[in-house]
Amino acid sequence: MGKKVGASARVAGRPLWSIGAQGLLSLALVLLFLRLLQLRLDSVDIEAVEAAFARVAGWQWLAALALTGLSFHAVGRYDVLIHRHLCSGADPTVAGRAGMAAIALSQTLGLGVVTGGLVRWRLLPRAGLWQASRLSALVALSFLAAWALVTAATLLLIPEAPFRKLAALVLAAGFGLMLLSLAAPPLRLRDRVLRWPNGFTLGGLLALTALDTLAAGGALWLLCPPGEALPLARFLPAFLLALGAGLVSGTPGGVGAFEVTLLALLPEAPEAPLLAAVLAWRGVYYALPALLGAALLARGPARPAPACLPPVAGPPPAEAGLARQGRLALLDSGWLAGRTPHLLVGLLDPFAPASEALPRLIAEARAEARLPCLYKCGARTAVAARRQGFALLPVAREAWLDPQGFRLDRPALAGLRRKLRKATGLRITRPATLPLAEMQQVAQGWARARGGERGFSMGRFCPEYVVGQRVYLGWDGARLVGFVTFHEGPGRDGRGEWVLDLMRQAATAPDGTMQALVLRAITDAAAAGVGRLSLAAAPLHGGPECWPARLAHRLAGVDLSGLERFKAGFAPRWDPLYLAAPSRAALLLAGVEIARAIHRPGRLPRQGARSPPEASRSS
Question: Where are the domains of the chain?
Answer without folding.
Answer: 2-299, 318-394, 398-576+604-616
